[in-house]
Amino acid sequence: MELRGPVVAVEEPRTVSTRNGSRDVAEVTMRPGRGEEPPVTVSLWGSWAETAESLVTGMTVLVTEPSQEEFRGETRYATTAESYVVIEPEFMVNVTDIREWVQCSRQYYLSKFTGASLSYPLVKGSLVHEVFGDLLRGRDLETSVEERVADAGLKLGLLDRDRTAVVEDVRSNAQAIERWLQQGTLTEDDEWRSELTLISETFGIKGRADAVRRGGPVELKTGKNTDAEPRFKDKVQATCYALLLGEHGQTPETGTLLYTKNAVLDRTEETGDLSPAKEFSISSGLLQFVVRARNELVAMEFDSSVPTGYESNAICEYCFEQDTCMVVSGRLDQESKAGAVGTALPAAEREYFDRLYRAAEAERREIHREYAKLWTQSAAERAADDKALLDLQPQERSQRANGTWELRAENDDTTAVSKIREGETVLASDGHPTRGDTELARVVRLRTSTDGTTEIVVHADEPIELRRLDVYPSDYGINGLLTAVHDSVLKGAQRRRDLLFGRRDPTFGETDATFIDNNAAQNRAVELAVTAEDCALIHGPPGTGKTYTLAQTVRALCERGERVLLSAFTNRAVDNALEQLREQGFTDFVRIGTEHGVSDSMQDARLDYRGDPEERAATLRNAPVVAGTAATCGSPVLKECAFDVAIVDEAGQLTEPDTLAAINLADRFVLVGDHEQLPPVVRDDDSALQTSLFERLIDRYPDAAVTLDKQYRMAQRIQYFSSQTFYDGQLRPASPAVAGQQLSELPTVSHEALPSALQDAVAFVDPDGTATGNVNRTEAERVAEIVDAYRSAGVPADDIGVIAPFRAQVAEITRRVSPDITVDTVDRFQGSDRSVIIVSFVATGTLDSPIFEDRRRVNVALTRAKKALCLVGDERALRSDPFYERMLEWAQS
DNA sequence: CCTCTGCCCAGAGGA
Fold this sequence. Notes:
Shape: globular
CATH class of the domain at 504-708: Alpha Beta
Number of strands: 35
Keywords: 4Fe-4S, ATP-binding, DNA damage, DNA repair, DNA replication, DNA-binding, Helicase, Hydrolase, Iron, Iron-sulfur, Metal-binding, Multifunctional enzyme, Nuclease, Nucleotide-binding
Protein name: DNA helicase
Family: Belongs to the DNA2/NAM7 helicase family.
EC number: 3.6.4.12
CATH architecture of the domain at 504-708: 3-Layer(aba) Sandwich
Oligomer: single chain
GO molecular function, one term: 4 iron, 4 sulfur cluster binding
Helix content: 25-40%
């Protein structure tokens, strides 16, 4: 039994005398049943009274195993010896965060923006952990060490480490583990499981245990510890996993910590029986302690306040982060137990940091809310929301060369739609993502064959029965945002900050060179980029040759001996830019990205991290051009690199921190984009992250910007509405040929064969359908008929694209057209084009979905078409809004 | 009432 719901009132804790002596108690009023039931009073006894001090009205509180008694006709509840009190159980805290918080609340805070740096102890720690996993999966030690060290080649090279020495170092740690595993500890009832993903819906904690043996957590530490007891924070970590294992039906009484360096000392110093393994007993007091620590952390995050360090008992003099801690306190004018050094940054910088910090944390809370839906939603609800694939039939399981598993399954449900795509990380389970046997897995194949069955292949650490896949809502990227803001504000050069905070206009040098002789705006763009002493902004409306201009810019900069970072929001845009460079005869670049993210044609340029350290690092360090998405620019590897100029494409779609991650790596920068197309996508509706740096700077420094005004894509008739509505009529066809292009120019097309309704370059069709939710069946059928009409008139399938605002409608249309027709959402169509574009608006009666509010989305949809555009929708709905009415008048004119 | 893309996930250590 449990009580879960919002807090209505909290009383101050008081001390009362009971039969067993004096005890603290605090009374909390809350509404159980997630707020559906009338308020009840719960007495929080003993140390839970401390948690009451963190409770605020409006928070959700969860009390497990309460006692219940009737008192004067009123039901009263109280905590029992078995109870836990959990604040905001939907806020998912990582086990490592609790470990850090217990060590020092301020260290937890600092690690949000300093955590992901490249250091040898960390790389080595990861290597030893990987080898440990391999050993548990039965892999040979020598092979594992060699392979894992080879995989880390680039990182080791950037750290100037010698391969042989690292192999020796990792091997000696791993041998300690192997000897311990062989020392009779491996009995028949020894059941091992490595790398177990644990998610607790009761405690709001998630994490990954290194290993579980006989139901108890085993944590590996690469350091040494010759004390009798494990370090407290290590015990806290293991206890967290014990708590989570408890929810999965196991009640471990002991935890094990493996300090591998103990055994290394043992061997080299002949100190006798100094075992690497230290066991400790997991008491209920310790279990409750970790929950209280989590509660404190969550209470702090609830109002986005900043920890001072006084929340924990750490001694600052012993802390490795003391200097960083004091600098951050000094620069941001924060109260801190460690004290502060340096002078505070200008108020503008501090306000900016604060604003983006809060925005990033709000985003994290939204992700956590999504996370909680893993268990608050039923399987059917999740499937309906496209977030899960259910009822998969498990097929064969095979162990891969590195000891991990390839799991296969089939799905017969031909109507199943989901957001899950190849290359993504998902929760793979045997039935339920938090209650069943679950593995974090990577989707390597998701293909639907012509008979409608879907083949699913994932890679995971353990051979579970693959019956269900769930979207994994990761908050992984949030700390990346915070790191970028931190690096920019606290570590950025004065000149750069003056620019970002509007205190200094960008300046430009001079050049006599001509770069592009047939397009003045493009030439001006390259000129601005090449002469920029701070930044240049290139505004590229649809079809204006952004990619060509960008490639010319890269080449011009390289010819001047500059080192260039080439970045973009999507992998596709990065690869497009590189293709364009190749077409222009430039091939001296290195592509950074995952095998899955990089297009097939660019795999040969992709930097493999595996190999000889020195050679790998030299390849990266010596490349005149390095290319990768903005997200990778914040990675530890790229943070080791420096550039003269960063060029960022699709900058209008990047949040400000994401853009900062890229430009932090360079002295100067060039942003390329269009703020009249799609903005950054964020979960929180009123987020400060919704405005891109590109948009902010183009408003602030119009003189540093140039707009490419000639478009090479659309017929005059098609581009007119977009040009008038979004570009002040400044967007013009690049040539008469572009302006006057017609569908009949395609060799196979007969204009006469088109129905009269489709003969105009811009057409409107009202199929008179009815929308149910995000689907309009009649309209989907009509769209399929229109596709057929174009096909019958001779338009090749790959010249036709269909766009709909909702994924559900996309699926509805996809089922009705042949598979070689591209059907997609607006967002996924940005950046590409087709001769013929058909847009399905879905809505009938009114336009009440917020998706119609952002006009920029319409701009993207309409400007994908080159020769013919067909709008399909409900005339009444579209006329209900002045913007769409104008669009309709243009289409019908 | 809704769209989307990136990140391998989370954690790897020091005293």
